[in-house]
Write a structure and sequence with these properties.
- Helices cover 30% and strands 27% of the residues.
- It has 426 residues and is of the alpha+beta class.
- The mean pLDDT is 96.
- The protein binds adenosine monophosphate and glycine (GLY).
- Glycine (GLY) is lined by residues 214, 228-229, 287, 291-292, 294.
């Protein structure tokens, strides 16, 4: 089977790498991919951008692609799956309507409330003056969120009224995130620890992936500005067996049936961002895709045939599919360009990537080959991912490799996974 993966980040490198291990996969194309996907056996990059839906469809038709898997949210929200299916092409991901779970925070909150799923109290505003006035009625901290897709730049956790006011002005009046900020959600600040709960559904059956947690803030101790994710690990002791059951039954299932009641079928990866405080679980957000960097450590632990799983999801055959997981722990440490998540320089030569081993894989996020040299080409550049018999050993293995890699200005957090080491010790 010939497979097309759409996207160019660490998530897509991991998706393509895992698909390539399947005996069912004869060839994997990645559009547009990165320097890491270019180096893999059975994988070839094609220079079509992930938002060129027509170009991708033409490629899939001409190249007899049996299955297409979409990595990022933008093409999903823009209807890539609908358009592939109109051309009788199998495409794994939600329709544009279903992808509104990520594409509009107001829609997502409405679904959660109608489905009876616990989430932060909120209000939606499309008039900035009313939003500013509303600040008089709330306590801080308070969270201001642009309604639409904002590439991780649309959420401000405001610890005082001035910051909340500035956020409303910059999102709604100064259009910091463009049309995504035409309306906003103002919501109650939740405390606790975040977990990423990711499942695959064919619309009827739901198959959960291994549990994971990511570190969203840039700086050690989970401080500093939010990023796409500075590192992740799997499994996480935060999500107990009982909580797992509760999330499947009281969060994922009612969300999918609420969508179904509205005539919307959800097929593809679904990522619930959870806030867990003692035993109380609330949904912070839904993403209509796999997580980045969660995909890297999760797929590192998968023993099952990933191509078979994805194909079965598209063919509505996930009934009774159970994923076989490696018992070991896995972590991924993101190495980023100096300046990320704000502005950063690209095109810097990367040195010191160690040889791959069974328990070590350096996934590429933003890289490019230039005249035989490996260079940085994004904010998040590499995700050094390792397996260990437990989380401590996985951490040691990942950092042993991370410490060998360098380029001008690169940085990484030295404490990925440590919150669970500390909580296990206490
Ligand atoms: P979102 O895109 O909605 O997940 O928001 C991005 C990040 O902002 C989350 O992963 C949290 O770290 C933080 N965040 C969002 N909503 C809240 C909330 N209601 N309370 C506390 N933190 C939040
Ligand atoms: N790691 C967070 C995300 O994928 O949105």
């Amino acid at each position: 089977m010939r497979i097309l993966v759409v996207g160019s980040g660490g998530r897509e490198h991991a998706l393509a790498w895992k698909l390539a291990q399947s005996p069912l996969a004869t060839k994997i194309f990645v559009a547009p991919g990165n320097a890491g996907t270019a180096l893999e056996d059975k994988i070839e990059n094609i220079s079509i951008s992930s938002d060129d839906i027509k170009g991708l469809i033409d490629f899939a038709l001409n190249e007899q692609i049996k299955l297409t898997i979409i990595g990022p949210e933008d093409p999903l929200v823009n209807g890539i799956v609908d358009q592939f299916e109109e051309n009788d092409l199998l495409c794994l991901g939600p329709s544009s309507l279903a992808a509104q779970l990520e594409g509009s925070k107001a829609f997502m909150k409405e679904i959660l409330v109608s489905a009876g799923v616990p989430t932060a109290d909120y209000q939606v505003f499309s008039d900035p003056e009313l939003a500013l006035e509303h600040l008089n009625n709330v306590e801080t901290p308070i969270v201001i969120k642009a309604d639409g897709l904002a590439a991780g730049k649309g959420v401000v956790v405001a610890h005082d009224k001035k910051t909340a006011e500035d956020a409303i002005n910059s999102i709604m009046k100064n259009k910091k995130v463009g049309d995504a900020g035409k309306s906003i959600v103002i919501e109650e600040f939740l405390t606790g620890q975040e977990a990423s709960f990711i499942v695959l559904t064919d619309g009827k059956n739901v198959v959960p992936f291994a549990t994971s947690q990511d570190h969203k803030q840039r700086d050690e101790g989970d401080k500093g500005p939010n990023t796409g994710g500075m590192g992740a690990y799997s499994p996480t002791p935060l999500v107990t067996k009982e909580m797992h059951k509760e999330v499947m039954e009281n969060i994922i299932a009612p969300t999918l049936s609420e969508l179904k009641n509205r005539g919307i079928e959800y097929k593809g990866f679904l990522y619930a961002g959870l806030m867990i405080d003692d035993n109380e679980i609330k949904v912070l957000e839904y993403n209509c895709r796999f997580g980045d960097p969660e995909t890297q450590p999760i797929l590192m632990r998968m023993n099952s045939d990933f191509a078979d799983l994805c194909l079965k999801a598209c063919e509505y055959k996930l009934e009774d599919f159970e994923i076989d997981w490696d018992e070991r722990s896995s972590i991924g440490v993101v190495m980023a360009s100096g300046g990320y998540p704000e502005s950063y320089v690209k095109g810097l030569e990367i040195n010191g990537i160690p040889e791959e081993e069974d328990n070590l894989k350096v996934f590429h996020c933003g890289t490019i080959q230039d005249k035989g040299l490996l260079k940085s080409n994004g904010g998040r550049v590499l995700c050094v991912t390792a397996l260990g018999k437990d989380l401590s050993e996985a951490i040691d293995e990942a950092y042993k490799a991370t410490n060998k890699i360098n380029w001008d200005g690169c940085f990484f957090r030295a404490d990925i996974g440590q919150r669970d080491i500390s909580s296990n010790k206490s």
